[in-house]
Amino acid sequence: MATGMTDKPTLRTVAAAAGVSIATVSYVLSGHPRSQTISENTADRVREAASRLGYRRNDAARAIRTGKSDLVLLSLSVLADPWAQAVAADVSAAVQPLGKTALIVADSDWRTVLANRTPDVIFIDHVRDDPSLVADLEAFAAQGVQMVVFSEVLEPQGYDVIRSGAEPRCHLAVEHLLERHTRIGALTSKLAGWPRYDAYLRTMAAAGVPVLDDLVATYEPHPEGAYRAAMTVLNRPDRPSALYCTTDFAAIAAIRAAHRLHLDVPGDLAVIGVGNTPEGEHLDPSLSTVGPVGFNAALCRIMVARLTDREGAAGKVYDFPWQLIARESTAVV
Fold first, then answer.
1. Distance (Å, rounded) from C-alpha 80 to C-alpha 77?
2. How confident is the model at residue 261, as a pLDDT?
3. Distance of CA 11 to the CA centre of its chain
4. What are the 10-residue block averages of pLDDT along the chain, 333 residues in total?
5. Which of 139, 279, 289, 298 has a Cα at 20 to 30 A from 327?
6. Which residues pair with 319 in a beta bridge?
7. What is the phi/psi pair of residue 236, to 5°?
């Protein structure tokens, strides 16, 4: 009987079209070591049949059979953030020798991916304070999904939790600027209620230095949005002498804007960010920031451990306290 147009092609239908066994199709399309013993003509015939029929490998079924999908999922909140890009590059390089491929998705899309695929391990860089999200995490962990989650509030429930103590330490950035400045503006993606911005408000108040609303700008959560916000603040005739930025990518954008306006950093404008991204270290001038030291290398070790010797282990907390890293953009090195 002919296969219906709406039928989903399977290994069996590909095998019949190519005139080979189901095992041969499986070896060729999965890259199994035994595929090396199959002639190139036969392999080509299998691949041509699979392409013509529109066959796609079922990763979920493969995971059920073998326990492995060879996928490492990275759920990153802001894909344009240099921090996210550095994490993706470093983790991809770390898992590639293990035969794993990194799949990168934005924000909460990890739930959609896990509904259709079973990655060998997943890193989620932000989980909103949403009971349904937490419940999903616990459910996936109970099903055996290996997870590493960045959260200041979650407790391990079959998955690892990374903490940084980031929010309480953002005050270090503002205190650093207050050593030399009083006209301190801010670039932030959110206002009151956003811990990184609240740290700015509290630290300025504690120092008895007023927050000038005209020197505060909000930005859309991507570099170009931060650049536009920086231009708005720095174009003012009474511009600030220093900027506290709630992300490193906003601080990098502020330095770009300053250069565009022919302002010297740090001579005319001191800039500090949050996150300690590798890009900031290599910027000219190098970016002062607060953040964890050696985080990416440590994350890679945690992810690889989840793939190897800690697979299926009980959840564990990894703490990465943030610290002030003073560089050239604030003239204290």
1. 9
2. 97
3. 35
4. 54 89 77 69 86 69 56 85 86 86 80 78 83 83 85 86 77 96 94 87 96 94 93 96 96 97 96 92 94 89 84 84 94 65
5. 298
6. 163
7. -70, 145
163 φ/ψ angles, rounded to the nearest 5 degrees: -125, 155
Contact yes or no for 133/127 (Cβ under 8 A):
yes
Judging by DSSP bridges, how do beta strands 317-319 and 270-274 pair with one another? Answer: unpaired
d(CA 84, CA 104): 10
- Contact in structure between 74 and 82 (CB atoms under 8 Å): no
Spell out the residues 6+ positions from residue 178 whose beta carbon is closer than 8 angstroms to its own.
184, 203, 204, 207, 209
Q: Is 115 helix (H, G, I), strand (E, B) or coil?
A: helix
- The reported pLDDT for the residue numbered 6 is 46
Distance (Å, whole) CA 262 – CA 235: 11
For 10, list phi and psi in degrees, rounded to 5. Answer: -125, 175
Say what the pLDDT of residue 32 is: 57
CB neighbour list of residue 77: distance below 8 Å, 6 or more residues apart: 84, 106, 107, 125, 126, 221
Cα 105 versus chain centre, distance: 9
162 with 147: CB under 8 angstroms? no
What Cα–Cα distance (Å) separates residue 165 from each residue in 4, 162, 170, 205, 319?
Answer: 57, 10, 9, 22, 8
Q: Is the dihedral of CA 291, 297, 300, 301 positive or negative?
A: negative
Reported as type and span, the H/E element at residue 252 is helix 248-260
Residues 6 or more apart in contact with residue 27 via CB below 8 angstroms: 34, 35, 38
CB 113 within 8 A of CB 105: yes
Strands, sheet with 147-150, edge to edge from the N-terminal-most edge strand: 101-106, 71-76, 121-124, 147-150, 160-163, 317-319
Collapsed DSSP state (helix, strand, coil) of residue 87: helix
**Number of other CB atoms surrounding residue 304 within 10 Å:** 19
193 burial type by CB count under 10 A (0-12 exposed, 13-18 middle, 19+ buried): exposed
